[in-house]
Amino acid sequence: MITFEGVTKRYPDGTVAVDDLSLQAPTGAITVFVGPSGCGKTTSLRMINRMIDATSGRILLDDQDVRAIDPPTLRRGIGYVIQQAGLFPHRKIVDNVATVPYLLGWDKKKARARAMELLELVGLDSKLAGRYPFQLSGGQQQRVGVARALAADPPVLLMDEPFSAVDPIVRASLQEELLHLQSELHKTIVFVTHDIDEAIKLGDAVAVLRVGGRLAQMADPATLLSEPADDFVREFLGKDRGIRRLSFVPATGIRLGSVPADLELDEDTRPLGWRSDGGLLPYGTFNPERDSLRAALDAALLSPNGTAIAVDGDGRAIGVATRDVLDEALARHGTRPEKRVPDPDREVPASDPRRAES
Ligand SMILES: Nc1ncnc2c1ncn2[C@@H]1O[C@H](COP(=O)(O)OP(=O)(O)OP(=O)(O)O)[C@@H](O)[C@H]1O
């Protein structure tokens, strides 16, 4: 557990980057700091490993004040990943990954063996080990950055916009891999991003900061989307938060009808398409055991008749959800009124989506 207790950082020029920040990043979970540029995310992150020292307040690592631990010792237990990986350009990939083990005095063979193991863990081909950073793509370099941060098996990992320099497709796969790694490693991760979608995808807990380094809200993603604390958080989450929050509603409760005769199936009862005079029409599927209500809606949108096909883990049709049934599910989950503290002094502007919701 990482605990911020009333932490403030005032830079020598008087800028208050972080103002009385109190929050907890739970052990074994991903906590994301998100917010607009200049809101103090990086400063907050760097105060954990003492690359920056707080002006006042305390940061505790489990129960120990980080100020009581000398920085080299502290950083041995904290992996650090930054944007564009920050690899040493003149060192081979394997030696970049082995940096911390070398510093810890491991013998070269053991350190390199560990590096090779980590390259595999982050999905890199072992033949890249002998290359130099410039010979790798941006996405590969980021993977090396993650491998390097994990080299000494630190319990804590700090990640500062680690995926923001790569294109959206590579970024999505790096995010998936981080989630996969985390499901095995259970590190305590603090992740900084300015991208709310990334925060919602990766965070077990999301701390939304506002400029001036003040905490606007800290919550799990589903709560954040359904119960934004104020207008700043609501704006920051964006206009499509209604549909995004359906990603956190399981599709299990959807009432399924039987598979209709106009759905063409193969011999294993996997769907092939909707029959029509002009041939088979496209369709969309969802797995009620595994997918969200959003996935079911997506499946419905892919079918010209608006009916989503439910499949089992082997892709076999087990039923359908018609538009009416999906409407019912939406009515149950999609229009839940927000819990907010009304502010009688505040007018709700005509453009505010809450007007439409009420
Ligand atoms: N060394 C410094 N001296 C003075 N002010 C600083 C210093 N470093 C950062 N700041 C200021 O502190 C505030 C917070 O900066 P910080 O880098 O923590 O924000 P951030 O949320 O990470 O921003 P971004 O998303 O743009 O990286 C900003 O106003 C920044 O200009």
Automatic annotation (TrEMBL):
Its EC number is 7.6.2.9. This is ABC-type quaternary amine transporter. Residues 330-358 are annotated as: Disordered. It comes from the Bacteria. SMART domains: AAA (SM00382). Gene3D superfamilies: P-loop containing nucleotide triphosphate hydrolases. It comes from Planotetraspora kaengkrachanensis. Signal peptide: none annotated. Residues 2-237 form the ABC transporter domain. The keyword ATP-binding applies. The keyword Transmembrane helix does not apply.
